[in-house]
Amino acid sequence: xxxxxxxxxxxxxxxxxxxxxxxxxxxxxxxxxxxxxxxxxxxxxxxxxxxxxxxxxxxxxxxxxxxxxxxxxxxxxxxxxxxxxxxxxxxxxxxxx
Amino acid sequence: xxxxxxxxxxxxxxxxxxxxxxxxxxxxxxxxxxxxxxxxxxxxxxxxxxxxxxxxxxxxxxxxxxxxxxxxxxxxxxxxxxxxxxxxxxxxxxxxxxxxxxxxxxxxxxxxxxxxxxxxxxxxxxxxxxxxxxxxxxxxxxxxxxxxxxxxxxxxxxxxxxxxxxxxxxxxxxxxxxxxxxxxxxxxxxxxxxxxxxxxxxxxxxxxxxxxxxxxxxxxxxxxxxxxxxxxxxxxxxxxxxxxxxxxxxxxxxxxxxxxxxxxxxxxxxxxxxxxxxxxxxxxxxxxxxxxxxxxxxxxxx
Lengths: 97, 302
Hints:
The complex is a heterodimer.
Chain A (H helix, E strand, L loop, with lengths): L6 E3 L7 E7 L5 E7 L2 H19 L4 E7 L4 H15 L11
Parallel strand pairs in A: 3-4
Antiparallel strand pairs in A: 1-2, 2-4
Helix pairs in contact in A: 1-2
Chain B lengths: L9 E6 L3 H5 L8 E5 L9 H14 L6 E5 L8 H11 L3 E4 L5 H17 L8 E6 L2 H5 L1 H5 L5 E6 L1 H8 L11 H14 L2 E4 L8 H14 L3 E4 L5 H8 L3 H20 L5 E2 L2 E2 L2 H16 L5 H5 L2
Parallel strand pairs in B: 1-2, 1-8, 2-3, 3-4, 4-5, 5-6, 6-7, 7-8
Antiparallel strand pairs in B: 9-10
Helix pairs in contact in B: 2-3, 3-4, 9-10, 11-12
């Protein structure tokens, strides 16, 4: 998939994370994270964002995220939705457990 | 295959795009949770809500709570994707909104089956329930209730029903009486559950209790709730009283005694106990057991 524009998903409500993805000129994934639980979970949140971006098969991405204590499953959902929106894609990739 | 017959006193609505509510929705003890992808989600957020509920269902351990997802109708751009995502996520039951005819159920079932086959899930795993929210749906209630073996129940959606009927919801519930009775009759004839609509004023517990008692008396199995505060009052109405339990225990003991004697005639205090009384007593004991009011050991010792 290729990012065609900026994409956003999520909210700044408790338990959620607001994610914005945009294309960069460089390769790899750049993450700008702000979290209410940065000290304890900052590293883990970055890992989940990186994994989700990799699973979506995109690179050259900047992810700006404002976290309000989201669970891993919420982070995955918001990052993936933001990427799919940025790619104008409906390739959701549903799989069974 | 998920459990078709189970306790459904309460089914709590969770808006599908609210991760904060999704995180701990099961700790309040409702029998079922209903994640909503339909009316509580704006059109611009349908994709986000679907992705969120999919990930939540695959990740969060909701214990023994029944997991229902209200999908968008198939005649919208979201219905098919909702079904594929929720079948894959392992939702126990898909709730079809605004069901008007048996064909609505049959059409949805075809898509569910298609998705089960596509993803290697045994056909029949995903169960269904139908929400009846208009005059035509009420008229076709029995046809809807018998349209698929996957159906676990039919539910009344009162707000849409009242809009369709050009009437307002009242405290007495007179405007819903025929719809409620038709739905419970159809459900009983089809051998599935009848589930009542929400009561949306969370600050009026007295009216909630009135509605819960009314629908219990009509024969409903449970009621939808929109707030954790509504769970305990509804359960208190559906749970059997100590007097009911004591009476039921005596009848169950009489059944066991008759079985031990090899007799088909059950008598209590010198009077014969009719079959409907036996069935009701057994239901009270089952309800008391699953509600945690009595223990399995107590039932076995009767």
